[in-house]
Design brief:
By secondary structure, this protein is an all-alpha fold. 50% of the residues lie in helices and 0% in strands. The longest helix is centred in the N-terminal third of the chain and has 19 residues, at 7-25.
Length: 62
């Protein structure tokens, strides 16, 4: 797959994912913390499957 996430998008997803996982593990939001795993995974591989059908990308143009 082609990379379609820029640095800012990747950083925001990573931070939000870690926060959601932590809130889920502490019982604040319960099992909804699983959503954080998806955010961390997409940040790790730098590909957002939701962007693909629409041809979106947050990478800077060269």
């Amino acid at each position: 797959m082609t990379i379609n996430m820029g640095t800012t998008d990747r950083t925001l997803r990573l931070v939000a994912g870690i926060i959601l996982i932590a809130l889920g593990l502490t019982g604040v939001i319960g099992w909804w913390g699983i959503i954080g795993v998806v955010l961390v995974a997409t940040a790790a591989v730098r590909v957002c499957p939701a962007y693909l059908p629409f041809g979106l990308s947050t990478l800077r143009k060269k």
